[in-house]
């Protein structure tokens, strides 16, 4: 018990110290004063994952076609706005795509970058609706571990990013991810129109490929920053590399299972072998006189009443043969 108390006290002291080096520009922004609102939203999300399927179990799935069209295209616009803001503000501030430290000043371009990153953080919370819509439509198979892990961790961890490093190297990953989400939600929006449009959307699997490329680029970019000893918290760099590796493993497995793995086809029963004398039947054995036998073993062709052909054109008489 005493050990637990010390651990809690040390954690609180570490958190209080960390607050002294947090970004003062964002502390009064919505959700940024402390982590409790963000944790409450994420906890509610996890609770809905448990209660939602139970609620929908005996109910008809909701269609939500119009809602999905509006939602997906709204997310296209939202992510495009974030991508555009980060690009223009970083360009105006003279940002380097290789190594960029955080500027905590009130420079308009730096504040604009911080604001764009905050909107990016908010977008990750809005994306919880992806899961809500899956459950309301009873698409439970879509709510995989990858799906939940991706949504829950992105929103929660980006609170840390905005609280301490709302600028600098942080802009690179958010900029790239927002651009990819423009394409993703464009696909989902078009798919919401139904089968007539869906059959034209041949590029779904390439979205997964682009996401995996993104994670590899993230690792390479972060490793380069460490190599150059970029003025950015190194522990965040190492944490980001580990985080990206988990996504490479999960998305790689998803891609393999969805697009590469071919389930083994069940073996077909062997066809009954034809008998050497040409008899065709539904059993394993047939008669030796060329008769056709049905599945029940009945002779389909009746023998002639006068006798059976002995193979030389003559017929055997019934009864005993007379002596000459």
Shape: globular
Strand content: under 5%
Number of helices: 10
Distance between the termini: 120 Å
Order of secondary-structure elements: HHHHHHHHHH
Structural class: mainly alpha
Describe what you observe in this structure.
This protein has 324 residues and is mostly helical. The chain is 60% helix and 0% strand. The protein has helices spanning 2-20, 36-56, 65-92, 108-126, 128-136, 145-164, 170-191, 195-198, 204-227, 234-260. α2 (36-56) runs antiparallel to α6, α4 runs antiparallel to α6 (145-164) and α7 packs antiparallel against α9. The termini are far apart. Mean pLDDT is 84; it is low at 271-324. Oligomer. GO terms for molecular function: fatty acid elongase activity.
Short description:
The protein is mainly α. 60% of the residues lie in helices and 0% in strands.
Please specify the SSE layout and strand pairing.
Elements: H1 2-20, H2 36-56, H3 65-92, H4 108-126, H5 128-136, H6 145-164, H7 170-191, H8 195-198, H9 204-227, H10 234-260
Catalytic activity: a very-long-chain acyl-CoA + malonyl-CoA + H(+) = a very-long-chain 3-oxoacyl-CoA + CO2 + CoA
Transmembrane segments: 36-56, 68-93, 113-136, 148-166, 172-194, 206-228, 234-256
GO cellular component, one term: endoplasmic reticulum membrane
Key traits:
disordered C terminus; mainly alpha; 324 residues; globular; single chain
């Amino acid at each position: 018990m005493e050990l637990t108390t010390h651990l809690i006290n040390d954690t609180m002291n570490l958190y209080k110290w960390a607050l002294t080096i947090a970004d003062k520009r964002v502390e009064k922004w919505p959700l940024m004063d402390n982590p409790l609102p963000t944790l409450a939203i994420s906890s509610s999300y996890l609770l809905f994952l448990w209660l939602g399927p139970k609620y929908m179990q005996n109910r008809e799935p909701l269609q939500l076609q119009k809602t999905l069209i509006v939602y997906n295209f709204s997310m296209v616009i939202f992510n495009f706005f974030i991508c555009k803001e980060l690009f223009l503000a970083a360009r105006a501030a003279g940002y380097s795509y290789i190594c960029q430290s955080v500027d905590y000043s009130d420079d308009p371009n730096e504040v604009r970058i911080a604001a764009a990153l905050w909107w990016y953080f908010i977008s990750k919370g809005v994306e919880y609706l992806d899961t809500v819509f899956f459950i309301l439509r009873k698409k439970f198979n879509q709510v995989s571990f990858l799906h939940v892990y991706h949504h829950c961790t992105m929103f929660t961890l980006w609170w840390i990013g905005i609280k301490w490093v709302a600028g600098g190297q942080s802009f690179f990953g958010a900029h790239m991810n927002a651009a990819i989400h423009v394409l993703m939600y464009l696909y989902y929006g078009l798919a919401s129109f139904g089968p007539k449009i869906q059959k034209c959307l041949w590029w779904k699997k390439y979205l997964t490929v682009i996401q995996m490329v993104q994670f590899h680029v993230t690792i390479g970019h972060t490793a380069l920053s460490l190599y150059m000893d970029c003025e950015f918290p190194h522990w965040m760099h190492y944490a980001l590399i580990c985080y990206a590796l988990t996504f490479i493993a999960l998305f790689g497995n998803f891609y393999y299972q969805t697009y590469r793995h071919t389930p083994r086809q069940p073996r077909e029963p062997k066809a009954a072998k034809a008998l050497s004398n040409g008899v065709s039947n539904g059993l394993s054995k047939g008669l030796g006189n060329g008769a056709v036998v049905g599945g029940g073993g009945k002779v389909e062709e009746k023998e002639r009443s006068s006798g059976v052909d002995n193979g030389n054109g003559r017929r055997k008489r019934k009864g005993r043969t007379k002596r000459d």
